[in-house]
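hi got a favour to ask and not much time before my train. below you get a single protein, a line of residues and a line of whole numbers that encode the local backbone shape. could you go over both lines and see whether the tokens make sense for that sequence. a few lines back from you is plenty, here it is:
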Amino acid sequence: MDKKGIIIADTVPIISLAVINKLHLLSELFDFVYIPQGVWIELTRNHLREDYSKIVAFFSNKIKTIDSFNNLVFVMDYGESEAIILYKELDANFLLIDDKKARSIAETLNVNCIGTIGLLVVAKEKGMLNEIRPLFKKWINSERFYSIKLLNKVLEKYGENEINF
């Protein structure tokens, strides 16, 4: 399986992947996985998180400090802004980010973005996942906020049953 270079990850997708026990997909899909110091701070702020130890174990040796002045912190959150800057500094291939506003800003800066759902779709297409529906259900049960309409559109594409309430 061919990997895709460097990915920089933001906080929200990391937590979403940890909730469904799929952090390993990052290492399986990419040669290098990094997070900026700002994301690390956000991830380790709450020691009581159920998935805290998984996140720390996976990312403790993947933290990078940005060298540039963070001029994006004025328009988005600290972790997201550092993730975009680190993407640029390392000439990364992808930025894993879900926040709509931050992603929009990143894309105007020619950052190649992928969301958590997109990452799962890539993994599914590469045969790394048999089903996506159980993962989406776990997100919903864990109060991860993704559009049900979007989740069902993905499920329909792969012939899986929709999520109904």
